[in-house]
Amino acid sequence: MFAETPDLDLTGQALHALAGELYPICRSITGDGLRASLRRIQEIVPLQLHEVPTGTPVFDWVVPPEWNVRDAYVANLRGERVIDFQRNNLHLVNYSVPFRGRLTLEELRPHLHTIPEQPDWIPYRTSYYRETWGFCVSHTQLLQLAEGEYEVCVDTSLEPGSLTYGELYLPGRSSDEVLISCHCCHPSLANDNLSGMVVSAFLAQEIQNWQRRYSYRFLFIPGTIGSIAWLALNEAQAHHIRHGLVVTCVGDPGFMHYKKSRRGDAEIDRVVDHVLKHSGQAFEIREFSPYGYDERQYCSPGFNLPVGSLTRTPHGRYAEYHSSADNLSLVRPEFLADSFAQYLSVMRILENNKRFLNANPKCEPQLGKRGLYSTIGGRKDASEFELAMLWVLNLSDGRHTLLDIADQSGMPFAQILEVSRLLSEHGLLNELQDDEA
Ligand code: ZN
Question: Is 425 or 380 the better-scoring residue by pLDDT?
Answer without folding.
Answer: 425
